[in-house]
Each structure stands twice: as C-alpha cells, then as structure tokens.
Amino acid sequence: MPKVKLTDLVLRDAHQSLHATRMTTADMLPACSRLDKIGYWALEAWGGATFDSCIRFLNEDPWDRLRKLHAALPNTPIMMLLRGQNLLGYRHYADDVVDKFVEKAAQTGVGVFRIFDACNDPRNLKRAADAAKKTGKHVQMAISYATTPYHTKEIYADLAKRYAEFGADSICIKDMSGLLKPYEAYELVKAIKAKVDIPVEIHTHATTGLSVATLVKSAEAGAEILDTAISSMAMGTSHSPTETIVEAFKGTEFETGLDINALLDIAVYFRDVRKKYAKFESSFLGADTRILVSQVPGGMLSNLENQLKEQNASDKIDAVLKEIAVVQKDCGYIPLVTPTSQIVGTQAVFNVLFGRYKNLTSETADLVTGRYGALAAPANPELVKLALAKNNYDAVITERPADSIANEYAKMAEEAKKEGAQTDEDVLTYAMFPKVAPKFFKERSKGPVDSASFAVPAAAAASSAPAKAGAGQAARYNVNVNGANYDVVVAPAGTVAVAPAAAGKAAPAGAAAAARSGGGSQILSPVAGTVLRYAVGDGETVKAGDNVIIIESMKMELEIKATSAGSVHYLVPTGTQVQSQQPIAEIG
Fold first, then answer.
1. I want to staple 532 with a disulfide (CB 3.0 to 4.6 A). Which of 326, 414, 519, 550 is the partner?
2. Distance CA 4, CA 223 (A)
3. pLDDT above 50 (res 460)
4. What's the pTM value of the predicted model, to 2 decimals?
C-alpha cells in the first residue's frame, strides 16, 4: 500500500479552473477506461460548478453525467464537491432537501463526499455529513483555507478535531487560491495530525507557483492523499501535474506506485481535448503572485475573466482583483470559495463599475447579515447597516441559518413539475437552480452541446454599412455616438434596440435617446445579464429610486431602480438576455 495516494481532478476542478467548467461529458468518457486503470485513490468528477454549467451552458443532465461516469469508472471512486447546507446552489436549503440530494447522489454514483462550508461554520456541515454517513459512502470534511488575521493553524486543527467528532472519514485542507505555503503546510498538517488520527488530503491550486512544493512538504508532514491534475490540464489556475508528483516521489518512502507511461498516455488525450476550449482558457497560465494578496480561487479567476468580458470590462481585471481584497475584509475576512468567492467577486465587479456598494447584491446582504453562517470576523459596520436595511432586518442572524428554513422538498417538487420536471432528479435540479432549470427541461431533448461549437469563429469584417435584411427581418447598423460605437437593430415595425459595440466603453450621456421607442426616459441595464422578474406591473406608477426590474448577472441578483417618476413600461420580457447599456424599460 503506497504511503501517498493521489486524487486526480481532471474531470472536475481542472477544467473548472482553466475553462470555466465547460468540458462536456462526451470529452470525458473516452479517457475513463485509462483513468480507471491508474490506481487513483479517487477521481473528482462531480459537484462544484459542474452541475450549474451542465444545465446553464452545455444542455446536459448532470445526473446523467454522473451515471455515465460511474459506469465507465467501475474501479475508482467518484468524488463530488458538496457545499454543506448550500449543496450546489447559492443559498442554504432545508434539511429535507439536503437529505434527499445526498441520498440520490450516493445512489447515482458518488463514492466520496467532500463536504465543505465557505464560512467554516460546523453547523452548516453536520446535516450533510450525517446524510452522507447514512449512505455508507466515504465522508471527507474540508477546511476552507484562507490567510487572514483570523485564521491560524490552531483554529484549523480544532476544526479538524470537531469534524472527526462528526464522523468524518478523512479531512481535506482545501486551498482554493494556492495560498498555502510549503512550510506552513508542513506545520498545519502536523497540527491537525496531533489532534486527529484519520487521513488528511491536501487540495491546492498552482496559481501562485507554490503548489508542488506545498504538496511535497505536506506529504513529509504526514498527509496521506494529494490532489493533482493530469499534466495537460495542470498548472496556471489549475493544479500540480500528476506526473510531476509521481516522479518527485519515485524511489522515496512516498512513492505512489503509479505508472508514468500510462499517465503520459492520458495526458496526450487531454492535450487534444484542451484545444477545443481555447475560447474559455484563462489568461493566467503562469504563476500569478497577485493572488497572494487578492486570494482569488483558480475556478473563480477564469469565471471572473469571462464575466468581465460579458460586461465589456475586461480592462478592469486589475482593479477588480484589488477590490476583492477590500470586499473580503468588509465581509468579515470570509474564505473565498463557492459561493462566497462568487458573492465577493461579483460585488467587487459592481463596486468597480458603479462605486463601492452603490449596487449591493442580495447575496452580499445575506452574507453579512448571517444568512450564510457565522463570519470569521466582524463585518464592516457600515456595510452591515446597508445590508440590514436592504433585507429589512433588525439585527444579524445568529442561529444556524437552516433552522429558519421549513422543510421545502414537497413544495419544490410541486413547483418543479409545473416547470417540466419529470423525475426526482429533475426536482433536485430545479431545487438547485430554479431560474435555469425550466429552460433546461424545455431544451433537454435537443441533446448536449457539441464542444466543437466552442471553436472561436474567424473575426468578421467590421462595416458601417447596414447588414442586409430580408423581408420581415431586422436590419443592423453600426452607429457612432460621441465617440462610442453602438450596434443598432431596427425591427420591421420600426422599433429600435441599441447595445454598445465597443468593448469597455460605457454609454455616453444622452446616448439612450437614440433608442427611445416612445419618448419617455429610458432605464438601461447597467450590466449584461438575464431579466429575472419585474418588481412592479407594466403600466404601474413608480417613484425615482423604486425597484423596477431584477436582473441576474454573474449568478447574482441585481435590483434595477427607476430613474424618474412616472408609469413604467417594459421593453424586454422576463427571461431575456440583455447587454450592458441596453434599454430595458421606459418611464413616461
């Protein structure tokens, strides 16, 4: 039995970190027979952001992915990443939903549950851990690692002890951002080993250039399992190469016993697969030491880049990275891991685009008012004040957040069936992402997206001439207003829609007038996103500052307010994907 075992992350965290979680099941399955023969301790292949990406971008059923992978990997346990009481969504769920989800995941193919909480609040982990223990599967409880004045090795060791008392079969140190330094890792593993006698697994990203040395020192301190990624999907925002660690330990007491030639064969396969996802590739392919300050996780970084592209704000990445550190501190030095990484990252983007906390997301308000659990340190009092007002709370929540959530599975099942859910799995999919699942249910029959469709198209030639339009079709024009280019679409009936064509430029003052359909004042979407719902009915009278439309942007909810008083008329239906500065309503 080797002293050090490896978990390969190629089927989940590697492509989440490098390619915004876009790898399709069809690109995974051809490698499974080879992966299954290697002798890994486990293969991480489910959970995290993969569930969301399957239904949001790939038109894949995530439960079907799990079934297929389980059938293709009969000899290797599949690990899933589970966010405790959050499961795979962005809020806490009632205990009955947690029980149902864990039970179904175990039945479908999960062999190892890696359970964590972004707040490291044990109250948010126990129900999921208890549910996983009942299934008889391996329960690994993870510590979300952060480097702040409030996180010490003593605190982490005490947390590991508590997890062991919960019945954890192993402990994971989950270093999402590559912040764990080699000698600090050695001391941390020693401190944990002094308090628990169960295996310790190390998860660290290569983002800062520390990861290989950190894994080596962790093994020397007694860590039994290390996370790696096959070399062609390693490094950058991903993880240390599997082959590198295998060779580093060869001939030592830590030898893994894995076949380097078999690993190299797998690397060849994924080298070709990786080319298909070039358009999603993170630009952070070397060692980015800025992350030692911003503490941005690898998966968050590649998603953040894509989200800024959607907002025509790719040039704001450095400002956003600096702002993330500010927001993290204001939010009580919260560790940055899903969902807190998304909450903090999106709020940082909005702060850079609109001014600090001028647009406070609902999720940020929930975080600092205790709806996600206890924070490591007190949050910024001024931010708490804003959040309490937004949520209409008198005080911050101090009880376990899920204690205030009544059983909800039966209600969700009823809602889900109205939206097209056909099975218990569909109900759970709806429970995780009720805004995305209905569209997936309607379009599922079309089949999964082909990764070949991700190929970057040849750049189209720019032209100021109108695109030819057939009878009854819209015509497109490129218009320059005060130095900014706009794509203008004129529909057959004469309705005009406008969106900025120049990346990184905001609409100049007065530009909205070009898109007016009835002479009233326009409300422009401040960000790219999806119109979720109207806050008031069409034609109702509103005051300046009233909430009018709720937009989902970067997986967070943003309230769009009336710019003046009058009756509101909506220009786009709910469910519409809108661009930054696109007119979405008119007041007049």
1. 550
2. 7
3. no
4. 0.78
